[in-house]
Amino acid sequence: MSDLINHRIRQSWTGDGAGAASLPDRAVRWLGQRIGPVGADRGRRADSVSNLADSALPAAAHEDLSALLGAENVLVDADERLARAGGLSYLDLLHRRLGDAVVAPDAVVLPASPEQVQAVLDLCVRHDVGVVPFGGGTSVVGGVAALRGDKPAVIALDLVRLDALVSVDEQSHVAVLQAGVRGPEAERLLGEHGFTLGHVPQSFERATIGGFAATRSAGQASAGYGRFEDMVAGVRVATPKGEWRLGVAPASAAGPDLRQLAVGSEGALGVITEVALRVRPVPTERRYEGWVVDGWAAGAEAMRALAQNHATADVTRLSDVDETAVSFALNAGLKTSALRAYLGARGVKHPCLLIVGWERDVRARQRVTAGVLRRSGALRIGTALGESWRHGRFSGPRQRDALLDLGVCVETLETAAYWSRLDDLYDAVRAALVASLGRAIVMCHVSHVYETGASLYFTVLTSRDDADPVGQWQRAKHAASEAIVGLGTITHHHAVGVDHAPYLEPEIGALGLSVLRAVKSAVDPTGILNPGKLLA
Ligand SMILES: Cc1cc2nc3c(=O)[nH]c(=O)nc-3n(C[C@H](O)[C@H](O)[C@H](O)COP(=O)(O)OP(=O)(O)OC[C@H]3O[C@@H](n4cnc5c(N)ncnc54)[C@H](O)[C@@H]3O)c2cc1C
């Protein structure tokens, strides 16, 4: 099939462009001055995709899957296959925008229960068909790429129909959700019982419970609610060797915690069908504040002081000088010139924005946090800035679409390190990106803090190199990854997928890798699960 007109293909966060943000003219001009040519004529979207191969799903497998799930839940038409052809990284979106050939799964399969997921796996073992577990498809590391490995065909096992709240143990504060429930629906279902998960990554609107667990996701409020793995009390996992259920008590000394083999398994060790989660009462009050600190080093010290004095807010976040400047420049709603004047009058030369937000025990905790921040030299700007951040907290992906439309290469990468290495890591990654990209804005924030260290989340904006747009980002990403090795982790929350697989061994060692391979061969001896991910 060639030159297929396809409206389902995901060229953006919003898919068809509805709901996409647009950037004010002055922001576009400001960007052009900083990174070179940008403009409406540079972000063309293809309305066609070339060379989508016909489905290679063997007829016998198709028949068996249809008998199991009903023909309407085994989709082989191009639209459905293209809609699951990869995730949402810059390169994923770029390939589709440019109309490049895409690799799509041979079929999309929609089981409706954990039992059906298990039966699909059994069937795929018999027919030797690869399986890509597909949640919200928001992976930015190639986690849902339709790779076949040594298999003749691969299906996307979309968990969208596993959309139920299974149970709520109100006494223990544990709820069981099926894997395909998306972030907002999880909050709605739990909210009916007076609970919240408090897991709000920027991909919240689309990503799923199963995807959060499979990638060790971290939400914007991780300082208060924990990373997703901290919330996981138990898992139900389908594997080619049968079902695995783990998690019978809040804590256990019965050997290594095998739940952690499912959490972060990225679809390579099993399909997570249900997750038991620690939940908390819905907050009755919230307060978000903006603070400013002078310079990145002072900001990082303030974050460390908060973490080590147990004074973090539920959201605790620091932007570096460049990210602060960009958010002032791109955010038309903020009265940024007045703010700059105020900061100048207070002697702040290199403003770095700090956002802190509390969702329980607000008054008492706010006093503790504020005390540490003041001692760290930070200035409170007020709740307007904090609330403005809270309201725009999910708008990043829409702004990314608007930037892609202008021909901007925009991508993010993340890592984490101990406090003693954080500055070195920050400098090394920045230097690698700038050396590779030339004229670029490289900005960073800390949004996940621990007593022992913090994450670093870099965002890069540069004018797209039309002669070699893919190579432009691949070289920069490689340079940044090389800079990370030895100083921090190759991924703090985006997971390994395809993109980080070459860097797994330097991080966990050859022995670590062989332990993971041994586990894989125990649960998936013929290697049908997510070929080429995690363990490339
Ligand atoms: C704009 C944007 C912002 C983001 N912000 C954040 C953020 O703030 N924090 C964060 O942690 N991540 C973030 N991400 C990354 C991504 O959203 C997370 O990795 C998320 O956890 C993936 O969930 P998903 O349901 O979309 O999974 P998918 O993308 O569908 O899958 C991700 C991986 O998990 C596997 N998988 C999915 N479901 C299952 C299952 N049920 N069983 C077994 N394996 C499964 C897939 O095979 C794949 O390898 C962001 C991504 C984007 C595009």
Automatic annotation (TrEMBL):
Residues 101-282 form the FAD-binding PCMH-type domain. Keywords: FAD, Flavoprotein, Oxidoreductase. It holds the Pfam family FAD_binding_4. PANTHER family: ALKYLDIHYDROXYACETONEPHOSPHATE SYNTHASE, PEROXISOMAL (PTHR46568). Belongs to the FAD-binding oxidoreductase/transferase type 4 family. This is FAD-binding oxidoreductase.
